[in-house]
Amino acid sequence: MSTTVTEGLLIAGERGEAAEGRSFEVLNPATGTHLATVAEAGVEDVNRAVAAAVTAYQQWGALSPVTRGRTMHRFANLVEEHAEQLALLECRNVGMPISDARGQLSMIIDVIRYYAGAVDKFFGNTVPVEREGVAMTFREPIGVVGLITPWNFPLNIANWKIAPALAAGNTVVLKPASLTPLSVLRYAELAAEAGLPAGALNVVPGPGGTVGGALVAHPDVGKIGFTGSTEVGAGIARAAAATIKRVTLELGGKSACVVFEDADIEKVGALAPFAVFENCGQDCCARSRLIVQRSVKDELVERYAATTAAIRVGMPELPETQVGPMISAGQRDTVEGYIATGLAEGARIVTGGDRPGGDLESGFFLRPAVLEDVTNQMTVAREEIFGPVVSVIPFDTEEQAIAIANDTPYGLSGSLWTRDGARQLRVARAMRTGVLGVNTNSSVFVQMPFGGYKQSGVGKELGMHALEHNTELKSVFISTE
Ligand code: NAP
Questions:
Q1: How far is residue 462's CA from residue 440's CA, in Å, rounded to a whole number?
Q2: Within this chain, do residues 92 and 45 fall inside the same structural domain, yes or no?
């Protein structure tokens, strides 16, 4: 079925309709109304996009890293000039509060600049060996990199992958989440305007199984970078094995916020709710288990719930809004189902978990919920809810706190609150998680590696580590004998 397309695919630097003429609708989650019609790629479009990326690689991959870095700097400047436009697209498509969307754009620009400057500082070396000659290593691009991304922070997550991939000399075919393709389509146009070759960055929105599947199976794609659920990620790893692709996976989480009795409870109560409720809890790093020492549990729950109840849930374009809607009616139904399961298994709602109604009636809003009387065996403590729900779980000793925090198949993020310096280090080292903040919510920096332990992923993003995952390492020996 062909309808009027307002947002085309981006292949070889050109926006256009899909080969089969299909399209799909994108909604504004704050109102439940039409936002855009987007061309829906199919297998033929993926093949065209990969062919364009192969051609662009001949030019882009052959440039010196210094030259590539200059183009990436121009790209960063263009994104900065268009930051407000991109933030508004993100706000309308995801339902992300505009203040958060602006914050995301500022990180996006920093990440592009980081890799623009890093790429000529990432190189091989010479190695002493026992024969006469020179043994040396080179960092070389992989070729075409296929990227598949989720809907929760669409542009920021795509950019974490695109910026190091391009800076390292690869070309890219990106499949964004079907719910949120808009911001990255505009961003990719800016890349072409900045002087990246046509076909260096292609964007093919379309159904995960078809478009993502074709990308993962394509023999000319050398690497797949994926962010999404652990279930889909496992399938991608299996499929990618058929052509021995390099794979990095950023997957789900069930992260802990561990609070000891010597922590500044007033500060934790005021700040920690934002480590789970930001982006309406649709955050892979959401600290969705509040693991608190029994002696301070009641005081903390009271403070935490008061902060949560005061969070301003509202229309995302208003500057004062702190939490917008969920991404879809289906996602909200899923989260409400988890709350009902929690209550049936013995939990109690301290605050939230209801729909605000009124002016927000037609959007997919849900008030942040605090659940008490939870044990780590309950469904709400074991499964990733991916919505605004926190489960409070008490402990008595440090050993118990560590055991509960680690009793999950995931290991992505975490917070630890204690004033005891030795305990900070002891517990931080004992927690099986890739990223941890001590006495703070935030622990993600452009310069630091980001990635999960256990079933939360494979490989690292950000920092110089992302360049390792976007290059091959070649060994050359020149004999002088
Ligand atoms: P998802 O359902 O796994 O989808 C992620 C992406 O994969 C989407 O683009 C989706 O396309 C595509 N896809 C679906 N099935 C596929 C298949 N069979 N083959 C290839 N691609 C396929 O995840 P989501 O619901 O968008 O995002 C939420 C999940 O992402 C949560 O589990 C969250 O924890 C995780 N996440 C992790 C991180 C991290 O850094 N660790 C960051 C953010 C989110 P469609 O949109 O067309 O279905």
A1: 20
A2: yes
